[in-house]
Amino acid sequence: MNPSLLAILAVVLGGAATALQAPTNARMMGAVGSPVNAAFVSFAVGTAALGVLAVVLQVRPDIAASRALPWYAWIGGLYGAIFVVAAAWGVPRLGVATTIILMVAGQLLLSLVLDHFGAMGMPKHPISLGRVAGIGLVIAGVLMVRKF
């Protein structure tokens, strides 16, 4: 299978899992009393699953290489925690579609800036009219999902 096609499929499936994650964690929030508790359960289950997968795949971390990373490379889990708490809290108030599309809009807006400056060591992709228009269409989609 074409590696690019495989990457696209993996990312689409990851996005689909995100859509499932939001209502799942919202349901958990109802049982455990807060979006923070729901996120804690979500991360505990995810950590256990990743631990099993690492053992099965025999993946071992390179401790020396990880020590050399900049500080921001260590806080990816913090972003995930913010995402999960926001989704668990937002879904009962906004619905799944509105919550996810707002999250995608936020991702796109920040990713446009990160790409433009090549932040965090990523390749630069300058802001263009087409990229801004694409994000504008997503934001228009947010308004349409919310209003109709």
UniProtKB/TrEMBL annotation:
One Pfam family hit: DMT_YdcZ
Keyword Membrane: yes
InterPro entries tied to this protein: YdcZ
Keywords: Membrane, Signal, Transmembrane, Transmembrane helix
Gene Ontology CC: one annotated term: plasma membrane
Signal peptide: 1-21
Keyword Lyase found: no
Positions of transmembrane segments: 37-57, 69-89, 95-114, 126-145
Protein's name in the database: Transporter family-2 protein
Species assigned in the record: Brevundimonas basaltis
